[in-house]
Design goal:
With 543 residues, chain A is α/β, with parallel strands linked by helices. Chain A is globular, with a radius of gyration of 22 Å. The chains are: A alpha/beta (543), B mainly beta (276).
């Protein structure tokens, strides 16, 4: 039994907004107050009590991230070192923290659940091993499906039913939690040196298949399979001037199906070229506000040095050509690709200044905080450990306006941020950082502090000395264990892994097996990740 | 002057970045003796390996063969280190000022990513002199490195400013991906000199094999050479610049980047007998 007394509780999922109340924890869950004696009591007077943070879209494990770690030793050298101790494993912080450090750093900020958003099925096994070595956090991962050649061939042939079984089989083979679509068709086209920029045009290498068919098909399939999390969409034309038209067209193609739009900041630009780039966050937010079938995460960008990692191979090649920085490219057989380019976002660059504003504009102009989440698309827009900086910009309009004044004058004319006076309340911060993403991921025991919820709780100073909220929690409780206390990580245990098992016809293997033997380097029987391979699987039902 | 004398040769490399004037100037000899050094992964004290004598100063003398001691003078900003013997890897890496003088040989990564100060090696140096560490965009950004003997691979890799002057022969990839600054090689170099160089100047006083992506431009005596020669002469390193002695053949490249660097190869005049 653990009792947290006297803290101001923010639990928006249960309608609790800054009420002083006790929270009791037993067996890793929140329980009703039995007034039982014994156990530990945390005096939380002067502290605010939040459900542990949930990151709806991040990149913390897998082949691509590991490639980025290897490609940027200069970043690893600059990273904060974690020295081996009795409690902690050694590791490095920085822009692509090592596995153990990732767990310590997320927990050290009060975040306890993360969703790894881009896993090729071929490297799912590796990803699960890395996730296992990412301590404290509960994890889920999404598999890349919008450039999988087997799925694409079925969508081109109009065999939706068989495609549904294949998608379900692939999700279970990867032991994943949902479906990710990155630049639908664009990565397949990249294997021919092309991209898929027009949603209604046939994709290179296909006769009739268009990105629109893939988007509509996957959204339908994911809804059909009743996955807890809708299709997780990384739209075409990421980061390109004028791409807001592609994004809006994508949303119309969804035609009422559920969808989560990943890192929307990178998809909300107007203008015809880099010189005329401007923010179209307002137009996108307006469409978004009118369509409740959609959720999104901000993918906000902060100035500084980072490394960009995405399955969107053609985008990374473009970025490499623009910046001249080193470039890594991976071809993942018949499934997807991946590109890595280190990148520095600079406030004096027009494009970067607009990007910075767009992320914040989306967070402020989308009215319903339950549908827009706090992310930076770590590490693409900025590193996850910089979330407190974004929270400060959202909560303090005066500070925000001072920062806008530092941007180039030209950039200030391309954004609407200066006209937005909205300030986030603490309750709204709890929604965008925890309650909202938990709901969008369909994790009913996360993101709230009601009875039965997982006891993932973060306690912060209401008035920290540094003036920056959420930077250093006083206590973090994960699954009932106090994992952060007095500024130190302790009591480290491994978290769970959320997996879904959608229904599929087992005869689909008769269809897949010969295809596999023909086109894959790996044998069919070695392809699926065995459920025993997962260390603490938590299999969620569909429907 | 503080004098450290090696009394016990470490069996594996010793990491000793605290052996720098910036750290030692504020400490008494007893405090210096107690400083931590890393022997492999184990923590040891300076006096496990060195005897410490002399008076508190930013002038440091290290005696003995410290070829296995790494990171001496790392990030130093002032003062002087004199090494009577050989020095280990990463000597003077990241230094911004002060002077280092080695009587014997130095190892790899000498003055890597340094941004100021002077390093002089009387013997030979290893590879990656004044270079960028793996992944970094730029190597040395200022300062001077003088090597009387030979040097290894990738000398001045990605350097941006400053001078590296080598008396003996240099191995492959001198000035690899160079972005600026000057490399002077009295005895020339082996293969692929200036590969991927963007800018900067490589001067060779001996004919060298050139990459096909360097094209011949002209033969002349650049005006700046007079200035460089005078500066290097004060450091005891002579280079020719007089028309009567000969001229430099200028090769531009590396065209495959494409870069605007130059390699200047000294050609003594037929009448001249002073090719050096």
């Amino acid at each position: 039994m653990l009792r947290i007394t006297g803290g101001k509780v923010y639990d928006p999922a249960n309608g609790i907004d800054g009420v002083v109340k006790d929270i009791c924890v037993s067996d890793g869950r929140v329980v009703t107050d039995t007034h039982a004696e014994g156990g530990r009591t945390i005096d939380a007077r002067g502290l605010i009590v939040f459900p542990g943070g949930v990151d709806a879209h991040t990149h913390v494990a897998g082949a691509a991230l590991n490639f980025a770690r290897g490609l940027t030793p200069e970043n690893m050298r600059r990273g904060h070192p974690f020295v081996h101790s009795r409690e902690l494993r050694a590791g490095l912080g920085g822009v692509t923290p090592t596995t153990f450090a990732t767990g310590y750093m997320y927990a050290g900020m009060g975040w306890t659940t993360v969703n790894e958003a881009a896993v090729p099925i071929l490297s799912a096994r590796h990803t699960h091993e890395e996730l296992h070595d990412t301590p404290i956090l509960d994890k889920s991962c999404l598999v890349l499906m919008a450039n999988n050649e087997i799925v694409l061939d079925l969508l081109e042939a109009g065999e939706i039913e068989r495609a549904t079984h294949v998608v379900a089989w692939l999700i279970w083979a990867a032991k994943a939690y949902g479906v990710k679509a990155v630049n639908p068709g664009g990565v397949a086209a990249w294997k021919w040196g092309k991209d898929a920029k027009i949603l209604s045009a046939p994709i290179e290498g296909y006769k009739t298949l268009t990105p629109a068919t893939i988007i509509a098909g996957l959204a339908k399939i994911v809804d059909e399979l009743r996955l807890p999390h809708p299709v997780h969409l990384h739209c075409n034309n990421l980061g390109i001037p004028g791409n807001v038209s592609t994004t809006l067209e994508t949303l119309r193609i969804l035609d009422g199906h559920r969808a989560h739009l990943a890192h929307l900041q990178f998809h909300a630009y107007g203008g015809d070229d880099w010189g005329s780039l401007r923010s179209e966050a307002a137009a996108l937010a307006e469409y978004f506000n009118a369509h409740p079938n959609l959720t999104t995460d901000a993918g906000a960008m902060l100035f500084g040095e980072t490394v960009t990692i995405t399955a969107d191979g053609p985008l990374e090649y473009m970025l490499h050509q623009l910046s001249g920085r080193k470039w890594g490219n991976v071809d993942v057989e018949n499934e997807t690709g991946c590109g890595i380019v280190p990148h520095a976002y600079k406030p004096n660059k027009l494009v970067n200044a607009v990007q910075w504003a767009v992320g914040l504009e989306l967070l402020l102009l989308i009215n319903d905080p339950w549908r827009v989440f706090l992310t930076t698309d770590h590490p693409n827009g900025a590193c996850f450990w910089r979330y407190p900086e974004i929270i400060r910009l959202l909560m303090d309009v005066e500070f925000r306006k001072e920062q806008i004044k530092l941007l180039p004058e030209k950039a200030q004319k391309r954004i609407v941020l200066a006209d937005v006076d909205r300030q986030y309340t603490l309750s709204e911060i709890a929604i965008i950082s925890s309650a909202g993403p938990a709901r969008a991921l369909g994790l009913s025991q996360k993101g709230h502090l009601g009875v039965g919820a997982d006891a993932d709780i973060a306690l912060y100073e209401e008035r920290p000395e540094s003036g920056i909220l959420f930077e250093f929690p006083r206590y973090v409780i994960k699954g009932g264990d106090v994992v952060v206390e007095d500024g130190a990580v302790r009591n480290v245990r491994n978290g769970r892994q959320f997996v879904v098992r959608p229904a599929f016809d087992h005869q689909i293997e008769d269809y897949l097996r010969p295809l596999f033997q023909k086109v894959y380097t790996m044998s069919f029987d070695n392809y699926p990740v065995e459920v025993e391979r997962l260390h603490q699987p938590d299999i969620k039902p569909c429907g | 002057m503080v004098t450290l004398t090696l009394k016990d040769q470490p069996n594996v490399p010793l990491e000793a970045e605290m052996l720098s004037p910036d750290v030692l100037v504020a400490l008494s000899n007893d405090e210096i003796r107690a400083l931590p050094v890393l022997l492999g992964k184990r923590r040891r004290r300076v006096d496990d390996f060195f005897s410490v004598e002399g008076a508190q100063s930013d002038d440091l003398e290290i005696r003995g063969d410290v070829a296995k001691v790494k990171w001496i003078g790392r990030g130093m900003t002032r003062g002087r280190i004199t090494i009577a013997g050989n020095a280990g890897m990463h000597l003077g890496a990241h230094m911004t000022g002060g002077a280092i003088d080695v009587s014997g040989n130095a190892s790899d990564w000498l003055g890597a990513e340094m941004s100021g100060g002077t390093i002089r090696v009387r013997g030979n140096a290893g590879g990656q002199v004044g270079a960028a560490y793996r992944g970094s965009q730029t190597g040395m950004t200022d300062g001077t490195i003088l090597i009387d003997g030979t040097a290894g691979l990738e000398v001045g890799m990605r350097m941006k400013r400053g001078i590296i002057a080598v008396g003996g022969k240099v191995r492959d990839f001198a000035g690899l991906q160079m972005k600026g600054g000057t490399i002077v090689m009295r005895e020339g170099a082996e293969l692929r000199t200036g590969a991927w160089m963007m800018r900067g100047t490589i001067i060779s006083l001996t004919p060298i094999p050139l990459l096909p992506t360097f094209s011949y431009a002209s033969m002349y005596n650049p005006t700046f050479m007079r200035l460089y020669a005078r500066h290097l002469a004060t450091l005891g390193f002579a280079i020719p610049y007089e028309d009567r002695d000969g001229a430099y053949q200028r090769y531009a490249g590396d065209a495959c980047v494409p870069g605007k660097g130059e390699i200047l190869v000294w050609k003594p005049s037929a009448s001249s007998d002073s090719s050096r």
